[in-house]
Write a structure and sequence with these properties.
By secondary structure, the chain is α+β, with helices and mostly antiparallel strands. Helices cover 49% and strands 15% of the residues. The structure holds flavin-adenine dinucleotide. The site of flavin-adenine dinucleotide (FAD) has 22 residues, from strand 1, strand 3 and helix 13.
Length: 400
Amino acid sequence: MFAELSSHAAELRQRLVAFMDEHVYPNERALLTPPPEKDRWAPRPLAMALMEKARAAGLWNLFYNHGPEGAGLSNLEYAQLCEVFGRSLAAPEIFNCNAPDVGNMELLAAYGSPEQKDRWLRPLLSGDIRSCFAMTEPAVASSDATNIETEILRDDGDYVINGRKWWVTGAPSHRCKVAIVMGKSDKSGPKHKQQSMILVPMDTPGVTVVRPLTVYGFEHAPLGHAEVLFENVRVPATNMLLGEGRGFEIAQGRLGPGRIHHCMRFVGLAERALESMCRRAESRFAFGSRLAEMGGVRQVIGQSRCDIEQARLVTLKAAWMMDKVGNKAARNDIAVAKIAVPTLTGAVIDRAIQVHGGAGLSQDFFLAEAFAETRFLRIGDGPDEVHREALARVELERGK
Ligand SMILES: Cc1cc2nc3c(=O)[nH]c(=O)nc-3n(C[C@H](O)[C@H](O)[C@H](O)COP(=O)(O)OP(=O)(O)OC[C@H]3O[C@@H](n4cnc5c(N)ncnc54)[C@H](O)[C@@H]3O)c2cc1C
């Protein structure tokens, strides 16, 4: 059923592997760690140069299948390419396949007006700008999006936005030029029709990036995550996406593919962690034997292979279902992957850290940051519990 690549996808995969070896791994540390004396949110010449190379090599917008700007891959094919570049946290941006821009580009392609596409989707696809998605708020439990309090209120030919958001990925970057903001345009309407999504240029008066946020101390520069304040932010009514009250509809469409792309990348990250674990175990001696000869270490290596295979299979199944029946009908498979993969791959990375000893926690290896990444996804894009709850509803219905 799985893993059949067209000759086009297989050829892209081969070139992607070569590009990673030649350009990404050797520069990984420099790409992930901004020099302390420089503005950490400014564009980095090295990243920009590699993006240019990736684009020239046709390794660009691999996720995108809404037009000639993409690579024309199925979800199942993209999953297998995503696994290749998912091995490095520095890679997604180089190939213009990073969150949240991918989700925002998908959203604009599906729901944007021709003018909105021309102004925002076009420069995003060409990598000239970055974007962010502002839904979560510090004041309310945002895993339940009906709680969102930000106001998007009509005032003649404009909308006026007021609210405080946080965990807005990408907002600190100087390259971030537009936010997709979710908020309430009708507080008294039916629960799932109260919310809207609107495009807000980041340089609009009243938009303030208050502070960057860290994940276990990692800044994730140069994109990062931020708290963002919207105070009497005025944008033209034509910036509304799809129509007033249609925010929930758009949110459902946006999050499905975004979630699965994280899973695809994590499979690659866990494979790399297992390779690193084995190399380390082969090369270190303690108490008279190689770590690789110790029963406990061999057990975690074996278990890690089992976990990666499970993670890969649920991810590929979800991607395959998206191709066969569409994102909406594949939502249960997407939920299974979203719940299972960060835990399975996070466990592999955690074991790799343990086998590396102190080195595993240090900046000398990719493992500590990789662990933080898998841990965050058990909360980001909705906490695991919310997805389990949705699955439970379906299962209980099935039993009736
Ligand atoms: C690194 C990172 C990047 C992010 N990027 C973005 C972004 O770009 N844009 C954006 O808008 N948001 C982003 N988020 C925010 C993320 O989507 C929210 O943190 C998430 O949806 C949870 O909302 P909350 O933090 O308000 O937690 P709360 O809603 O307060 O939930 C807290 C906890 O309550 C429990 N819980 C909730 N519901 C249930 C339930 N039904 N059953 C059982 N337990 C439950 C869970 O354990 C949950 O973790 C990001 C978060 C992180 C960490």
